[in-house]
Amino acid sequence: MKVTLTLFLALFIPIFSYAQADSLFIKRMSDDIMRNGKAYELLYELTKKIGGRLAGSPQQQQAITWGKRNMELLGPDKVFLQACKSPNWKRGGADFAAIVGVQGEARIQPLAALALGNSMGSNGMIEAEVVAVASFDELEKRKSEVKGKIVYYHSVFDETKIQTFRAYGESGAFRRSGASRAAKYGALGIMIHSLSTAPDNAPHTGSMSYEKDLPMIPAVALGPNDAKMLYALAQKGSVKVQMQTYGQFLCDVDDQNVVAEIKGSEFPNEYITLGGHLDSWDVNEGAHDDGAGVVHTLEVLRVMKALNYKPKRTIRFVLFANEENGVRGGNEYANQAKLKNENHIFALESDAGGFTPRSIGITASGAAFKKFQAWSNLLKPYGAEVTLGGGGTDIGPLARVNPSTIIAGLVPDSQRYFDLHHAKTDVFENVNKRELLLGAVNMAAIVYLIDQYGVNP
Amino acid sequence: MKVTLTLFLALFIPIFSYAQADSLFIKRMSDDIMRNGKAYELLYELTKKIGGRLAGSPQQQQAITWGKRNMELLGPDKVFLQACKSPNWKRGGADFAAIVGVQGEARIQPLAALALGNSMGSNGMIEAEVVAVASFDELEKRKSEVKGKIVYYHSVFDETKIQTFRAYGESGAFRRSGASRAAKYGALGIMIHSLSTAPDNAPHTGSMSYEKDLPMIPAVALGPNDAKMLYALAQKGSVKVQMQTYGQFLCDVDDQNVVAEIKGSEFPNEYITLGGHLDSWDVNEGAHDDGAGVVHTLEVLRVMKALNYKPKRTIRFVLFANEENGVRGGNEYANQAKLKNENHIFALESDAGGFTPRSIGITASGAAFKKFQAWSNLLKPYGAEVTLGGGGTDIGPLARVNPSTIIAGLVPDSQRYFDLHHAKTDVFENVNKRELLLGAVNMAAIVYLIDQYGVNP
């Protein structure tokens, strides 16, 4: 009996202690972040002292300097910049849209509008009747009506989708490719319903692109209330609108990823990356998108240094350049990794806001995922778990150049994200301190676990 | 083989279909709530057109009329009022607190302050030195210093507690009983650090009570920033403060629970109750506390009627009176249930805010809980699960008069609740529409499941 117990203890205590040590270290990180975290104060600086940070703006350059200085203050082994060229899209003026006639009668009604990012200006005011469609199918059926008109896409969110990113993915097609699909049939411009869940009238911008060899017609997103009103009017009869935008591309500009690194003590050639993107749209402070991801990244670095954590593997903390309208930073990070033949085992992005965390979503195959999923119990005290599927725009290229890199994303609660995403309402005041810090806790936990145990099943 | 398969199907299809029917009906409710829900618009009316609704205020009477009318419009089998007498505490004036001396030097510094609910006025301005303590232990050790002084309790939240209700439970002891514990040693008044997680200076009120036969000394909560400043000064040397409050109780007032009922078709004598409380503190709109619970309750009634759901059991939708400073409504509901010998099998309260739902917390013993827990998969698509432990102040009395009543609470994410709980910031603008509606979805789902399957293991 005594021998059996001893044997039992000899076999099981190390395993138990291991798990307990993990749980204790994660709690130490959590306590330190919730008590001493600087993410909220840093976000204040980034949003209020610098502001909107579209590639090509002076603010993006200031943000690089700010990010580098703050990384250096935290004392990683090194901090370096990775140069890239980013597109330089300028909004160029105050976007304008208005209803000017309903059923043949003159009627002036301004519409809250923002030009879509990367869209070209209208070259003066354009005026035309609206062809309002609810889908690309409807556009195809009514293509003969489109020539010389302005197409309005009723790209409302499917409110019944509890995961709002799914509704965004669907309705987002109109923003991304609606202009060229309408230009093909001779449209002069397009308007969309903002990709918004908010019960307000703020228009939401966001990137679009044109197909080659088609006219680059102007494109605006309307405030949700105005968009619904326009759609209702257009279903009853003819509606004439005006629009004017000023978008243009200047020459590409010098841009930079900002990277901090802590060298691994056992497996220095295995890289773990975590990051968010430093740029934002021009119309807001980029607080949730992606100021949150930036300060999450800095916070994980801060807590690891504050607790004197010595990683086994090399950890990279990256503030990516130009996610919003080019992904040049993410591509350059992947190119450099490939050029230097770096073994990137894991990359984690925070680019879904600073809301209360629900999970760490990991894209991994069966056996590896099972290993990660077993860590759910270690995340649960901090409100999260490990779920299947996840990544981020900036780390996607890394997985494309090296398919063995496992990518993951912080999954915050998504109910409020599209209320303010790409709208003027994405400001510091709409970020909650505890929710923000808790995102960093869960990121720190998963990075710690990957560092301790690697990614092999 | 063929026979075996048939047998297999015969055995398992009914079970499968059952679960699928549940999942489909819950999805129908969710779709209808997320698309056509009226909770947000009703909350606007309750908060912006009526406002703060402390028992004894004209607004509480307006809210009763409003609640009854809105229930009637939804067409349940009956709507009735349950009369009770509620306490009638009046703040009576603009609470005042200030530092007037530091280390013997005159220094005037106003402090953001709110009298605690149920506390008595100071009878003019009082001025005294501060004894600042961080715990009741410290108060006991320093009891000889307290006579003629004003005791300040440094009742800060433990920020490391991820479940903020736990920190509230701990720090709340100073608000609830700090006055009498200091009065016992001759204190003239008390001040506490507001029970707040917010990085702002808004003071938070909330209920307190006095022990018998001790002086009913005035009690205020200070804004978090001012409280921390006062505590820091008091640790360095003597600090003199002034305070003036005006609290008083007038005669008890007529109050009412507002109750809607849909009669059960199979087990009409088994009652399921869901509800929130109609009253709020006087200093805000009571949007999260507990406007959210009120409109959740109305929303579940709305969707059940909209989908023409005929419950097996009798479902009661209750807007409770006077939760904040007396629980007279909850007690009356329990008394009536006992008097009428009603068999209340289950009661669910929403009184933790209109934030994104995380779980339905159910207080039940082993076998019953296992049954409920198996429904977690049906809640997961809507962001929740079934967790052990939960209830609410208004339904607690029901379980006390009938211990077989199973009680439960909606558990929303708690990170933001104590930023605004009992402070002027608990207003409509701080409620998110989708988060609010999603709370109703999960409440509707659990009420539906209890109605279909009862509570017996």
Automatic annotation (TrEMBL), chains A, B:
Indicate where this protein resides in the cell: Endoplasmic reticulum; Golgi apparatus; Lysosome; Secreted
Naturally occurring in which organism (per UniProt):
Aquirufa avitistagni
Domain annotation Peptidase M28: ranges: 257-436
Describe the protein's quaternary organization and the partners it interacts with: Homodimer. The monomeric form is inactive while the homodimer is active.
The residues the entry assigns to the signal sequence are 1-21
Q: What keyword terms does UniProt attach to this protein? A: Carboxypeptidase, Endoplasmic reticulum, Glycoprotein, Golgi apparatus, Hydrolase, Lysosome, Metal-binding, Metalloprotease, Protease, Secreted, Signal, Zinc, Zymogen
Q: Write down what this protein is called.
A: Carboxypeptidase Q
Q: Which InterPro entries match?
A: CPQ (IPR039866), Peptidase_M28 (IPR007484)
Q: Does the keyword Glycoprotein apply?
A: yes
Q: Does the keyword Aminoacyl-tRNA synthetase apply?
A: no
